[in-house]
């Protein structure tokens, strides 16, 4: 495992903020020479630290303003990972995790309103025989860390 230094983290911070910047602009923002930025990015890609560049969408622009977290308790003999993988293709589900504690799966959903949330929980999730119980929490404020 390679050690990372302040230059690596400075470059990564700029890329996390805007991955479409040119190497020249990254160099300007970080104060690191262009050749160094180029070589560091190349190394970070080769080492698998940078795996892809992506676009972050503001989903509220599409009318999906309500975020909720749904805790799911699976039936005793069900495979939690398989259940999670079966849930994830649904367009309202943004993220999912297998978790410890009283529940087995946690999903983050984004919907237009309470009616869509109700439809997701009562109509879609209830079609899964592996789900024995759900608990839904509506987020009233979301803060995303870079």
Describe the structure.
The protein has 146 residues and is of the alpha+beta class. It folds into 2 domains: 41 residues, Arc Repressor Mutant, subunit A, CATH 1.10.10.10; 81 residues, Lrp/AsnC effector binding domain/regulation of amino acid metabolism (RAM) domain (Alpha-Beta Plaits). The protein is 36% helix and 21% strand. It is built from 5 helices and 4 strands. Strands 2-3-1-4 form a 4-stranded antiparallel β-sheet. Strand 2 and strand 3 form a beta hairpin. The mean pLDDT is 92.
Keywords:
Alpha-Beta Plaits, Arc Repressor Mutant, subunit A, four-stranded antiparallel beta sheet, 146 residues, alpha+beta
Task: Give a brief outline of the structure.
The chain is of the alpha+beta class and 146 residues long. It is 36% helix and 21% strand. Helix 1 crosses helix 2 (23-30) and helix 2 (23-30) packs across helix 3 (34-46).
**In which order are the strands of the major sheet placed?**
2-3-1-4
Characterize the largest beta sheet: strand count, sense, and whether it forms a barrel. Answer: 4 strands, antiparallel
Which percent range fits the helix content? 25-40%
Overall pLDDT level: 92
The CATH H-level superfamily of the largest domain is Lrp/AsnC effector binding domain/regulation of amino acid metabolism (RAM) domain
Q: Give the termini distance in whole angstroms.
A: 24 Å
Shape: elongated
Give the ordered list of helices and strands: HHHEHEEHE
**Secondary-structure content class:** alpha+beta
Number of strands: 4
CATH topology-level name of the largest domain: Alpha-Beta Plaits
Which regions are unreliable across 5 or more consecutive residues at pLDDT < 50? none
CATH level-two architecture of the largest domain: 2-Layer Sandwich
